[in-house]
Amino acid sequence: MTVPQKKAIEKSVSAISTEVEFAKAILEQGSQQVTHDKTTGAVAPAIPFDAYITVYDSSYIVGGIVDKVARTADSGFNLWSDEVSNDGKNKNPLLDILDDLDTEFLLTNLYLLNNSFFEVIRDTKTNKVVKLVPILANTIKCLKGGEWYVQQVGSKKAYFNSFMKWDDPNKKDAITRYESSKAKEDELVGSENGAGYNEALNEVYQFKGMSLSNKYYGDSPVKKVLRQAILLANIDKFYNMIFENQNIRNKIFYSKEGKLTDKQRVELQTAITTALKGIDKAFKGLVMNGEIGSINLSEDLDDKAFLDKADRLEQAVCIGLNVPYDVLKSTNSNKASSTVAIKVMYSQLIKPLQKKVIQWLKTIF
């Protein structure tokens, strides 16, 4: 993780009033990722994808759940159609497609971001779709009007049409809208009526989940548990400071001579206001000149309270991400309850995710 990301994650949760501000705070202070796009008509997600990716990379509970769900869903698709013969010779053609598709990338993006982007490659002679190439979600944005895309990496940009069936009756109208938009040969311009269809550009297919408030992007399930994930990260960091700062409870070491020099007074004021504030300064002391005495600035650490809080936060994250807690941690479960938890996860999460992917693929091929 980069230094800017660490600084952002260490921000106090109480200082951030909304989920959008909270997520944006994760990305500030020098991130080199493109978070603003001045492209005409580009529409960014309300919460940048980079925020979720940072949480995925830095949170053991979110990252672990996302990996478990994606890899479980990727472990086997039931793609045999109703027309498959009893001898199994008439294999569903989607199986060949999946052999060449990065399904783990697709499923990880879908569960983490509720969006996954792929460039559509067609056979130049038959116009048949032959390949889907992954696109990093934090490099691409929708254009105003819905769908249609611009990808930006550094100063370089690439534009893409939204996917259309080759014989779609609306394609002719879309081409006309592009021509009337006065866009250049290698670009598209977003507008309320859409960007049209530029025949010189490739297409993008967006695997997009549900949103109740945004027509451009699906809402990430991680949005519900951002605060809990950051609190867990801060608890871990607090315990790390026990070892970083010699396991010393916050104290002021003072002179027993009974009188502070001007320098000591300034040191004391600085210590109280800044030097002993924040997770980085946990278990840290301040030394002054003269015969030494000490004053404790905090109560003894209640280890159990912290660990109980972490346990409750883990459970809250599981609830928010619709994953049974027993699947991840079996401390308070038995074989029967664990078996039920696995069945629930398959029926309520894995199978619906697989089903959606198959439905989307059928619209492409």
Note the topology.
Blueprint: H1 3-9, H2 19-27, E1 42-43, H3 49-58, H4 60-74, H5 94-99, H6 103-113, E2 115-122, E3 129-135, E4 140-143, E5 149-153, E6 156-162, H7 171-180, E7 203-208, H8 226-244, E8 251-255, H9 262-275, E9 285-286, E10 292-296, H10 303-320, H11 325-328, H12 335-364
Parallel strand pairs: 6-7, 8-9
Antiparallel strand pairs: 1-4, 2-3, 2-7, 4-5, 5-6, 8-10
Task: Provide structural commentary.
- Mean pLDDT is 78; it is low at 1-17, 26-39 and 78-86.
- α4 crosses α6 (103-113), α4 packs across α12 and α8 (226-244) packs antiparallel against α10.
- Helices cover 42% and strands 14% of the residues.
- The longest helix is centred in the last third of the chain and has 30 residues, at 335-364.
- With 365 residues, the chain is an alpha+beta fold.
- The chain has 12 helices and 10 strands.
- It has helices spanning 3-9, 19-27, 49-58, 60-74, 94-99, 103-113, 171-180, 226-244, 262-275, 303-320, 325-328, 335-364; strands at 42-43, 115-122, 129-135, 140-143, 149-153, 156-162, 203-208, 251-255, 285-286, 292-296.
- The strands form 2 sheets. It has a 7-stranded mixed sheet with strand order 1-4-5-6-7-2-3.
- α9 (262-275) links the parallel β8 and β9 (285-286).
